[in-house]
Amino acid sequence: MRLLLAEDDKQLGESLQAALALEGYAVDWLTRGSEVLHATEVAAYDAVILDIGLPGLSGLEVLRALRQRGEGLPVMLLTARDTVADRVQGLDVGADDYLSKPFDVNELFARLRSILRRSAGVAGPSLVAGELEIFLHNHEVRFRGEALVLPAKEVALLEVLARNRGRFVTKTRLAESLYSWDDEVGSNTLEVYISHLRKQFGSDSIETLRGVGYRLVL
Ligand code: CA
Prior knowledge:
Layout (H helix, E strand, L loop, with lengths): L1 E5 L3 H13 L3 E5 L2 H10 L4 E5 L7 H10 L6 E5 L4 H10 L3 E4 L4 H15 L6 E4 L2 E4 L5 E3 L2 E3 L3 H12 L5 E2 H8 L10 H13 L4 E4 L3 E4 L2
Parallel strand pairs: 1-2, 1-3, 3-4, 4-5
Antiparallel strand pairs: 6-7, 7-8, 8-9, 10-12, 11-12
Helix pairs in contact: 2-3, 6-8
This protein binds calcium ion (CA).
């Protein structure tokens, strides 16, 4: 899952980016509102964490512009001011959730999982594909009832495939959801991960559409 974090407070931005990366998300961090509008045009994000008090365009103005553009991606607003009017305005403009500073990072994680589940149409705490189950709160993977230990990037890849089970996901989309701008990406990394996953779940578990992408058929 790839997130866009827009927060102009350097200390908070840095610590949130690090904490979210430890949770297994690929995170791009920006400090200006106008940059968010550009970034969401050039990369596919799974959610945006958007501070309201940003220099230039405010978070609310950014959100309004995103929704006017027809951008449906989940948005979590962050604000220093916690008034009912702010919350109502934020939700009316199209925010999916709202968190007031200061907040506990664990609450942010839980709310984020919740908006990501809703956007994927997943009601429960796990993704299920045949005999595969991925628990979203701790990224535990179970196959035929047994817990597997997989590298974080492979779990992230499996999550994207499971969310789109039965549909081909393009290589570009997969790479975008796994890596932030700061990551060094080898050209055949995706292929390597896919081949590891096939060893775990069977050679037929992931189909290739040459030149296009992959789909999970568990
Ligand atoms: Ca701010």
